[in-house]
């Protein structure tokens, strides 16, 4: 499903590699936690997967798509297969919860009728029934992250990338979000989570890939994390 073969990314001409010959294989429906100190190369890895950045060398194949042969015009299609959520939610402030989630569907050409059918299902999945008409500033951090997750999964991506999704949340809301990611994973989506939260990593008992100075330094089936 996700395959990296000796992937290297060097940003500047004289810069050290942000990623250095990284090889990885992630199966469909896995739940993988990516850890590493700041600057280790986690974001670079995620940006290569979403094609925001291109590798300097090495091979990337996601869902059967070989990035070497991927044309610019096909990138939006690829991004539909990969949902992304961030630490800072990135919601549209002038739009309601419903509209924030519907927006992703509108731009992919879904009719109003289909939209009215699909969006409530996702709102229910993420536990936001009753909040449809609220605006982002009226939501708690945990609720805002649920909207971001709903928006990321509404087009049924094969992969969900959650880049520090709990970074702005208190422990209780953090765990709510992690449980929601697990639920989405159970429904058949591969989840790739980055976090600095040691408690989450150690209690989840999932595969943990540790990156340090651009290299994979450990890959454990039921990993733990020490800072
Ligand atoms: P992490 O997400 O683990 O904090 P990053 O992937 O952001 O790590 O960064 C890895 C290395 O690449 C760092 O040394 C960082 O300074 C460098 N880097 C990241 N993005 C860029 C960029 N756009 N241009 C130049 N260097 C970058």
TrEMBL record:
GO terms for molecular function: ATP binding; ATP hydrolysis activity; transmembrane transporter activity. Gene3D superfamilies: P-loop containing nucleotide triphosphate hydrolases (3.40.50.300). GO terms for biological process: cell division. SMART domains: AAA (SM00382). GO terms for cellular component: plasma membrane. Keywords: ATP-binding, Cell cycle, Cell division, Cell membrane, Membrane, Nucleotide-binding. The keyword Cell membrane applies. Residues 2-225 form the ABC transporter domain. Pfam families: ABC_tran. It is found in: Cell membrane. InterPro entries: AAA+_ATPase, ABC_transporter-like_ATP-bd, ABC_transporter-like_CS, ABC_transpr_LolD-like, Cell_div_FtsE, P-loop_NTPase. It is a peripheral membrane protein. Part of the ABC transporter FtsEX involved in cellular division. Homodimer. Forms a membrane-associated complex with FtsX. Belongs to the ABC transporter superfamily. This is Cell division ATP-binding protein FtsE.
């Amino acid at each position: 499903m996700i395959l990296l073969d000796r992937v290297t990314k060097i940003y500047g001409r004289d810069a050290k590699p942000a990623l250095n010959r990284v090889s990885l294989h992630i199966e469909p429906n896995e739940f993988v936690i990516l850890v590493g100190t700041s600057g280790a190369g986690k974001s670079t890895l995620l940006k290569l997967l979403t094609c925001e950045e291109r590798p300097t060398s090495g091979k990337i194949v996601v869902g059967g798509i070989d990035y070497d042969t991927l044309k610019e015009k096909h990138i939006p299609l690829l991004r539909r297969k990969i949902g992304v959520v961030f630490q800072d939610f990135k919601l549209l402030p002038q739009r309601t919860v419903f509209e924030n989630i519907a927006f992703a569907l509108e731009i992919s050409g879904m009719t109003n009728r289909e939209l009215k059918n699909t969006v409530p299902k996702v709102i229910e999945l993420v536990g936001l029934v009753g909040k449809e008409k609220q605006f982002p500033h009226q939501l708690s951090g945990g609720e805002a992250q649920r909207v971001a997750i709903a928006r990321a999964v509404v087009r049924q991506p094969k992969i969900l990338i959650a880049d520090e999704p709990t970074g702005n949340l208190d422990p209780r809301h953090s765990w709510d979000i992690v449980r929601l990611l697990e639920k989405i994973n159970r429904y058949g989506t591969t989840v790739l989570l980055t976090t600095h939260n040691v408690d989450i990593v150690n209690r989840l008992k999932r595969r943990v890939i540790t990156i340090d100075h651009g290299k994979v330094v450990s890959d454990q089936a039921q990993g733990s994390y020490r800072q």
